[in-house]
Hints:
The complex is a heterodimer of chains A (238) and B (205). Chain A has 238 residues and is of the alpha/beta class. Chain A has helices at residues 58-65, 88-97, 114-124, 129-142, 158-170, 188-205, 216-219; strands at 18-29, 32-43, 47-51, 73-78, 81-82, 99-102, 176-180, 208-212, 224-229, 232-235. In chain A, strand 1 (18-29) and strand 2 (32-43) form a beta hairpin. Chain B folds into 2 domains: 29-110, Arc Repressor Mutant, subunit A (Orthogonal Bundle), CATH 1.10.10; 121-204. Helix content of chain B is 67%, strand content 9%. Chain B has a 3-stranded antiparallel β-sheet. Classes of the chains: A alpha/beta (238), B mainly alpha (205).
Amino acid sequence: MIDAHPAAPTIIEPKRSPVLTARSLSFAYENNQALQGATMSIGQGEIVAVTGPSGSGKSTLMLCAAGLLRPTAGQVIYNGQVVNEMSEAKRSKLRRTEFGVLFQFGQLVPELTAVENVALPLLLSGAKRKPALLVAGNWLERFDVAALADARPTDMSGGQGQRVAAARSMVTEPTVLFADEPTGALDALSSEQVMTQIARVARDTGTSVMLITHSAQIAAYGDREIIVRDGMTYSGDA
Amino acid sequence: MITLHDCFTSQIAVFDLLFTQCIVTFVTTGHVLMGLLLQSERHGYDLKAEHDHRFPTARPLAFGQIYAALKRLQKNGFVEAVGTEKADGPERTIYGITDAGRAELNAWLDKIDHPIETVANPFAVKATIALLVADRDVASRYLSRQRAAHLDAMRTFTRIKTDPQRSFSDVLSADYAIAHLDADLRWLDTALERLLTLEQELQND
């Protein structure tokens, strides 16, 4: 196996105390070995950009780190607990309460308004409707889309929809936000607006962010870069 | 026998020819000063302060440059002395733009600058020399470290462009720097990929 970045160490440590660590992760989709010993940590309040060519394994790394996939080898450690050894019910609770997830296409529920979409994670966790909508409205405000509270996803632009989706991913005040190409479907200025809001809110709230992107311009919103190549991780910093 | 260095050099040449184009914008001190004089009449000291304030990322103008440019503009009839001012220091001449100056400024703003076909690529030259005198690892290490330095610079400009306190001019300058760094980063990523692919091809031969 040829090392694409021979100068870069494969063990990547954050400058701040880690909130989430992935150690020597392996994962395969049938015959495709997506991860082969991927290792990384995210520090408290740190935005880590995870980059790499298409098919390098960066999204699989995120899905394993977020507890959405179980690695075949290695460990994901969050708050002293091994996430991949938890029961499905425990992992599900962790995702609802401690983790936020944001995908390229916001996956808003088309039948619901913006404020109802943002309130959804709270309602699913058992919150009452009125206070949940109130909290959701505050989060729409933080992402500068409060005026869209009663709009449905079909009436929003791509950038507006993504900001509503970002508000939904943060409404439970997660410790870690996993964002997979959050601006991948947007034009340059909409991308900038969405990323600026995500980075600002994350820094204000001390949320750690694992930011998956193929774009250097988006990676530049992060504090550090981790490059994934052939399922292995390398530091992108000198 | 074709070496890795030969392959990489030819790939770089083709890549340069096909993809590396840039726009060279011809900005003269005279046009910038006329633009600032269009706002209000000013003396040379004021012009320098206004220039350095509006274009903080540009090289600051020397007083000598400003007075030389004003002299040329005056000779061409684009600016004229409209008065003098004496504060604490020596007497200063106040300049204003003329109708001919306005026409020249509008013509300059209307003019499209020509893209040039190739640009110097110091990273390709260094990587090629590294392949020549050392090996793939040295070239790859150089490109990886250069890539990290570029991304770090991009982080700095991203902070500038997203800072609500920054002026519109700062944001435009940061956008420009980011776009150029991004072009370099894409090239660096492609070059690293090519190094990897070529090495694999040579091993298979």
